[in-house]
Amino acid sequence: EPPNARTNRAADVIAADVMQAKPRTFFEQDMQLSPVVSLPGSWIGHSPEMRLYQGLVWYQREFPATAPKPGTRVFLRIGAAEYRSYVYLNGKPLGEHRGGYTPFAFEVTKLLRPGRNQITIGVDSVRTANDVPPPVTDWETYGGITRSITLVTVPDTYVDDAFVRLTPDGSHIAVSVKLEGPKAANTALKFRIPTLGATLDGKTDDAGKWEATLPVPRNLVRWSPENPKLYDISIDAGADHFADRMGFRTIAVKGTDILLNGKPIFLRGISMHEEELGANPVRAMTPAAARALLSEIKYGLHGNFVRLAHYPHSELTTRLADEMGLLVWSEIPLYWLVNWNNPDTLADARRILAENIRRDRNRSSIVLWSVANETPTNDARNAFLRTMIGDVRSLDSSRLVTAALLSGREGNKIMKIDDPLAADLDVMAINTYNGWYTDDALEDLASQEWRGPANKPLIFSEFGADARAGYHDPVASPHKYSEEYQAAYYRATLAMAAKVPFLRGMSPWILKDFRSPRRQHPLYQQGWNRKGLISETGEHKLAFDVLASDYAKREAADSAKR
Ligand code: ADA
Question: What residues are in contact with ligand 1 under a 6 Å CB criterion?
Fold first, then answer.
């Protein structure tokens, strides 16, 4: 069952930055590993012996708790564990979960004991061809418990799901609530935005649901990257009090334009992976690391948009994007060679999508839900992804649907958007690497013409070139992998992009160099994908400034229009 609003509230952290857990692996005796590790974090950063380990690791620890008070229920919520998890409390199985990047929760009301409790979690990082994502990806697999574990206490009847947003015309605030528990049906509720003095009273139906709209208060300030205004909201229902902090904005497509709050916007973006860099690869995102990454985009690159590739990133990041004012592309890991014919793979993908959307659909920063990345077209794939697109629309019709597609081409001059899925999306997105993975000369890129169903907006969701930071080749035709080649590639691709009449945004590949076992060029890569504009140790490459000055010009032109 997808996690939901109950997981969004204040909770007792039982396994956050300070948790000490015991991994029990077959390595422990043989290799004399330290039996104690800090969570959240991947075991690949816990010790040199575990750096390359992929398989099953058991974690166990004790924690104190009080018995749940009468009339309350307690859930154990795991922020993310990669990839398969087997969860036990006090020796009793709670359940399993597949998927490395979304939260899941189990009710533990009856199992929790006053005093000492024992939690045991087995995490297996090995993925099969039926998994989402499948085994081969161009990023590191960070096995382990990579996000916090919390105990969430709620009343017997509680707000299980709450979705708050502006109606597409921007005239009303729409509220959808689902209560769970013995008193879910016909219960009075109150929605509030205290600083606006706005309240809305209602009552759930026989199924425990409430759908209502409230005319937009006159003093409401819309959320935007320039003014990321957030409001505290609350829902009181019986004994439960649900709170969140969010912004209000509309996002729509009209012809080839993307409209934010009714006005055309160009998405000045960049892609990023979720990775804690430095000596210890642990992946777990800290607030400081998330802020540092988003600051590079917002203040360094003059960006207003980030593509969180290729899987749901931490809630820290999406909440911070709300706060800092960055538009977000959120994605699920249907990546490269998925088993499109397997009904279990489809069921997993649909569940992971629902887990992601339910976690984050009150985040004003998120404007695009992406269902896939670089998946070659065929009938089974098209049918699979159409199901996913249908799911997005039924879970959240207030945002736009996209997917990163590949293009076709006719000779050297004409690039074609010919993926049939483009017709099903609100915003088309293309990953293009002409001049890097192809023989196109950089000086020819600007004369390449993009053709496609030009009746909707296009984003270049990726383009990029590897460069080893500090490798310089300041000649007329610089060598690939030099900072000069990457900078020239960016200049040429930006010149090409400027001529695409229906282009409404871009998220080049990628903000920072990231670990990828596939990338083993002995001189230039050494286990890293080097398409970052920033090296893993934080140095800006020359191309960073090329993109930053293009975005600064676009930003100035946009603000002059306003
Ligand atoms: C792909 C893929 C990315 C990235 C890139 C590259 O297009 O979408 O994950 O790895 O290639 O660097 O080649």
Answer: 138, 310, 373-374, 431, 462, 509, 529, 531
